[in-house]
UniProtKB/TrEMBL annotation:
PANTHER family: ATP-DEPENDENT DNA HELICASE, PTHR10492. GO terms for biological process: DNA recombination; DNA repair; telomere maintenance. This is ATP-dependent DNA helicase. It holds the Pfam family Pif1_2B_dom. Residues 209-254 form the DNA helicase Pif1-like 2B domain. Its EC number is 5.6.2.3. It catalyses: ATP + H2O = ADP + phosphate + H(+). Residues 1-109 form the DNA helicase Pif1-like DEAD-box helicase domain. Its cofactor is Mg(2+).
Length: 370
């Protein structure tokens, strides 16, 4: 979900542009234009780094001056779980029950005063422990990987989801080891830009190894390991006209010294092949008073991805890996609602001691749903 400041910036920009033609536009929301928003407040809210509950809620459009000008229209049909696609009465009932269960999780039914609750996982959705947790969820989500790895449809319709980047990185590394082919490693070039007004901080204060170790959500790692045919996800908007936007899923087709060729698997340009260059990307570290500048390819492996990153994706097979439980509003709802049918999701959940459990935690900020 977009931060309210982004939406307010669009409002001010449109007022400023349209007032040239009509001065009254400066006093009208979005300069008098009709703007259509789409969203679900059960899903994850704007990301506020190290933000408190109140700070996250305050970042929502509901806390913006714009909200009072918005007319809310509610949609009722779950387009991923369409009852009309049921081939029998029993299948219709299953889809209806699963859809209702997801809505109850999104609404925080039976949660405590803080919006937290423990959800029992239906037995048919549980991944039973056999080997180690990562191996179990990988085998459940990617069966027959050694024979199906070249089937792009097989790759694009499934993913493992987890709340934390550490788990996602560990899963991607393990699946890449099992994926046929020779790996190639691309290393980034990292530097910093010191914030103005910080004369006591110099780039030499931070070692290259420290800068390389920094990991940020939605930002490529220093070390990017790939193989031909492996699935990846785009981390930045590059060219909307051909569907190269944040979240587009890709498959690696060539790995050169100065470029990576990928084939687009989702969006408006499925099947198109494009070349990706290294880009200079930046991420500000407020606590360290500098901006990290990383020159790297703007992609990441997508055998697994964070729950937040999966928002907007439609998948046929999801392995939900809860070695650590969800920690913020809407994450469990987003993870469970990625699939097109109940049989498409399997869950591996652990308690605080790292032991397999048949329950999972849910977090809902009910204030945002009022």
């Amino acid at each position: 979900m977009s931060h309210k400041h982004n939406i307010e910036a669009v409002d001010r920009t449109l007022r400023d542009i349209l007032r040239i033609k009509d001065r009254r536009s400066a006093e009208r929301t979005f300069g008098g234009l009709t703007v259509v928003f789409g969203g679900d407040f059960r899903q994850t809210l704007p990301v506020v780094p190290k933000g408190t509950r109140n700070q996250i809620l305050n970042a929502s459009i509901k806390k913006s001056y714009i909200w009072e000008h918005i007319i809310v229209l509610k949609l009722t049909q779950n387009m991923r779980l369409r009852r009309s696609m049921a081939e029998s009465a029993s299948e219709y009932e299953e889809i209806s029950a699963f859809s209702s269960w997801i809505l109850q999780i999104g609404d925080g039914i039976n949660s405590n005063v803080f919006g937290e609750s423990t959800i029992k996982i239906p037995s048919e959705l549980c991944i039973q422990p056999i080997h180690d947790p990562i191996s179990d969820v990988v085998k459940s989500t990617y069966p027959d990987l050694s024979t199906c790895y070249s089937d792009y449809k097989y790759l694009v319709e499934r993913a493992i989801l987890a709340p934390h980047h550490e788990a996602v990185s560990a899963i991607n590394s393990q699946v890449l080891l099992e994926f046929p082919g020779e790996p190639r490693c691309y290393l980034s070039s990292d530097s910093i830009e010191v914030d103005p007004g910080q004369p006591n901080i110099m780039e030499s204060d931070y070692s290259t190894e420290f800068l390389n170790s920094l990991k940020v959500g939605n930002f490529p790692d220093h070390e990017l390991k790939l193989k031909i045919g492996c699935p990846a996800i785009l981390l930045k908007n590059l060219d909307q006209s051909i569907g190269l936007v944040n979240g587009t899923r890709l498959v690696v087709t060539k790995m050169g010294s100065w470029f990576i060729e990928v084939q687009i698997l989702t969006g408006t340009s499925i099947g198109e092949r494009v070349f990706l260059p290294r880009l200079k990307l930046s991420e500000r570290y407020k606590s360290l008073h500098f901006t990290l500048v990383r020159r790297q390819y703007p992609i990441a492996l997508s055998f697994a991805m964070t729950i937040n990153k999966s928002q907007g994706q439609t998948l046929h097979h999801v392995g939900l890996y809860l070695h650590k439980q969800v920690f913020c509003h809407g994450q469990l709802y987003v993870a469970l609602s990625r699939v097109t049918r109940k049989a498409g999701i399997k869950i591996y959940s652990c308690n605080t001691d790292g032991e397999h459990t048949l329950s999972m935690q849910n977090v809902v900020y009910k204030e945002i749903l009022d």
